[in-house]
Fold these 2 entries.
Entry 1:
Amino acid sequence: MPDNDLNLLDASVVPEHAHDVKEEARAFADDHIAPVAGDYFDSGDYPWEVLTAGQEAGLVAADIPAEYGGRGLDLTEMLALAEEFYRADAGIGLTLMLASFGTELLDTYGSEAQKEEYLPPVANGEKLSGLAVSEPETGSDLAGMTTAAEKVEGGYEITGEKYWVGNGVEADWLTVYAKTGDSDDRYGNYSLFIVETDRDGYEAEHIPEKMGMRASKQAHIVFDDCFVPEENLIGAEGGGFYALADFFNHGRVVVGGHGLGLAAAAIEEAWGFVHGRNAFGRNVSEFQAVQHDIADMRTEFEAARSLNWRAAEKVEAGDDAGLWAAMAKMKSTETAVDCAERGMQLHGGRSILTENRIARVYRDVRIPVIYEGASEIQRNLIYRQS
Ligand SMILES: Cc1cc2nc3c(=O)[nH]c(=O)nc-3n(C[C@H](O)[C@H](O)[C@H](O)COP(=O)(O)OP(=O)(O)OC[C@H]3O[C@@H](n4cnc5c(N)ncnc54)[C@H](O)[C@@H]3O)c2cc1C
């Protein structure tokens, strides 16, 4: 009889220096996320109390460098954290991870004055940030976005719409991706701006209820001649597309961790169910077809996890980062879809009872195969960079 404690997210593939953070994240997820995950999924409320607890525990905005009040966690530490949070619940996990979304761009490309003003309040939990890239008409085509920032005296006026923006209602400021040029080089036409959400001309409302990750909130934003001063431009005008492409290499490794956490949850649920259920006079786990399903899930999970952790090393070393990030993101998030689908089948009719964790996981896994670049975009990137 195989071991009942699967320990799928074991530390053996995690670099030594990330073990402590991983343990902290596991304990936090067990104490603060898992117990309330079902309730938040049902209500669709924003999990303020879990967010506050995460901020107090130093597990939110933890990648902001220590000199600006954060913990300066590196990519592998953030990946360890993502796996653990998402295993407990993807909706709450997303809210915790997006509380500082976009600050990485400011940290890499922003001026010293911008960093000193905007990073510490996010690091210490006083403020929330977000990243506004996607638009109602496209999220995939980064060089096809139409929200424009027109140069005016003393700054820029932003006009257009953004969609799907995490914390667009809750955040205090966003990093906004907007068009500042119209040259033939379509990749050189975009820039990044800090936009405080209390500015005139900024309106945001929650998008309609979602079927998955219900404890996270996204917004539809309308910018109507929203003025931002020149000092709010991040980096050089025209450098937004390339900055974002580089940022996504890091983000996609972490989103791979979203998939791994969800896949682990699906396998755990399937394992528990088949060992507790009888049919035809025996335990369901004794059927070879069932065992093969579990064997496939486990194998795909381990393959994805090895790839993802290898990609983390590659991206940190700047070694073919775009290729490895895309492979990791695609493989890990698609493995989560596959494991959830098989996990549902193994639960029989009970799979569709919304009170069961497998039903929540099944709905959540649909999302990481889309955000930070749909799988098709990852395949395009993998082919082009091979
Ligand atoms: C829960 C959630 C949270 C999100 N959070 C944020 C956020 O905080 N900030 C933000 O800016 N965005 C966010 N997004 C948006 C997300 O990044 C986009 O949904 C994603 O990039 C896809 O864009 P789209 O939905 O507009 O799909 P589209 O770009 O319209 O694409 C639709 C489909 O067409 C196909 N397709 C498109 N282009 C190609 C191509 N070149 N080759 C092959 N097939 C293609 C793919 O199947 C794709 O899924 C979030 C989305 C979700 C669901």
Entry 2:
Amino acid sequence: MELMEIIKKRRSIRRYSDRQISRRDMEKIIEAGAAAPNAGGGQRSILVGVHNSRLTTQIGLMNMKKFDRSKLAGSYVSREQPSVIDDPSIRNGFYGAPSVVIIFGQKNFMFRTADAFCCAENMVLQAAELDIASCIISRGEETFSDEEGEKLLREWDIPENYSAVCFVILGYTDDKQPSSKPIRQGRIKIIE
Ligand SMILES: Cc1cc2nc3c(=O)[nH]c(=O)nc-3n(C[C@H](O)[C@H](O)[C@H](O)COP(=O)(O)O)c2cc1C
């Protein structure tokens, strides 16, 4: 598939079946993330793959517990596959995906967020090429900001000067692939 085809095919998926992705595919997706452009060439982001559906769900519930809906009143994201913003009955911020990659950034590094989302974008594109469903999820720092979260970070040996920035959830859906979104008019200019 051509790169532009993959870019346009990729959509955020928010309903997952129980089917797990292979470990080999997860490794390839993480490799794509680790190869992303990064500020100063420092390769500071740390990528942790959780290839375990029970643990992924636990973290998805923690992610949703920290969600402050009041900040987004009136927003609407998707009619095809409602997001946590659209549907207050959604309790798992990872929508039942069986795997997740957590992207950690070095605290106090000014480009930690930019670096993390470059990794995330590479990963969702690699997932699309493998026909794996994905979605970028935010609220990384908040997700691990209590005793339950801190315990996991200790278990995984995450350095003290790192905290989570965002997530890429991974899996398969039984739903129809959402159609490509048209690009909103007026966003592109080329100056000769
Ligand atoms: C910085 C960023 C944060 C996002 N956070 C979330 C999130 O927490 N939950 C979610 O369901 N989708 C999240 N998304 C996915 C966007 O909602 C999605 O990309 C957007 O609606 C466009 O739809 P598409 O990805 O299907 O083209 C995030 C995307 C980005 C780039």
